[in-house]
């Protein structure tokens, strides 16, 4: 295991859905601007792994950067955050490199933390721009629409989690 994240709660006790599949361009860009909320909700059920109930220890491809318990040996092997990503997506890139380095990212719901979540990029055009720049950098690095490795990783995780969609 290279990265562990506990269950993350809003201050009111509701679960934050921060375990995710590796993103497609739609997940990071399209969902943000899609006016069809039912389509977004359906995709979030899968992308944010909501179908799992967030009540079991599970291996996931991408954990939020709000709480990262990282193995030092793993970081020595794969390196630290990519300096090309300033904010929004740096943890995704790190988790992907952990997987490719032979490590797992694990969600551990037996411990809870509280996180005040602002969604700053939804409130500020400056932060939206930073998020878009990060997404462009990430997809230029890993692949936009053709990303065989992303497809393999996500398919494997969904199989392990018993997804029947």
Q: What features would you describe in this structure?
A:
The chain is of the alpha+beta class and 165 residues long. The protein is built from six helices and six strands. The strands form two sheets. The protein has a four-stranded mixed β-sheet. Strands 2-4 form a two-stranded antiparallel ribbon. It is globular, with a radius of gyration of 15 Å. The two termini are 27 Å apart. The model has no long low-confidence stretch (mean pLDDT 91).
- One letter per element, helices H and strands E, the order comes to EEHHEEEHHEHH
How would a crystallographer describe the biggest sheet? 4 strands, mixed
Structural class: alpha+beta
Taking strands numbered 1, 2, ... along the chain, how are they ordered across the largest sheet? 3-6-1-5
Radius of gyration: 15 Å
Strand content: 15-25%
Low-confidence stretches are: none
| Strand segment count | 6
Overall spatial form: globular
State the distance separating the first and last CA atoms: 27 Å
Overall mean confidence score, pLDDT: 91
Number of helices in the DSSP assignment: 6
Percent range of helical residues: 40-55%
What features would you highlight for this structure?
single chain, about 160 residues, alpha+beta, four-stranded mixed beta sheet, two-stranded antiparallel ribbon, 6 strands, about 40% helix, globular
Brief synopsis:
By secondary structure, the chain is α+β, with helices and mostly antiparallel strands.
């Amino acid at each position: 295991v290279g990265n562990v994240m506990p269950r993350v709660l809003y201050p009111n006790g509701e679960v934050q859905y921060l375990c995710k599949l590796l993103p497609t361009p739609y997940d990071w860009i399209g969902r943000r601007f899609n006016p069809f909320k039912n389509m977004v909700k359906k995709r979030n059920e899968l992308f944010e792994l909501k179908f799992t109930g967030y009540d079991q220890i599970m291996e996931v491809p991408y954990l939020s950067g709000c709480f990262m318990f990282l193995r030092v040996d793993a970081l020595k092997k794969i390196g630290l955050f990519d300096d090309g990503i300033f904010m929004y997506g740096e943890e995704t890139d790190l988790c992907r490199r952990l997987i490719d380095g032979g490590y797992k990212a694990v969600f551990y719901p037996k411990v809870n933390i509280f996180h005040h979540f602002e969604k700053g990029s939804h409130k500020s055009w400056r932060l939206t721009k930073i998020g878009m720049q990060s997404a462009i950098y990430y997809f230029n690095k890993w692949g936009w629409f053709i990303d065989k490795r992303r497809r393999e990783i996500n398919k494997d995780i969904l199989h392990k989690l018993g997804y029947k969609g």
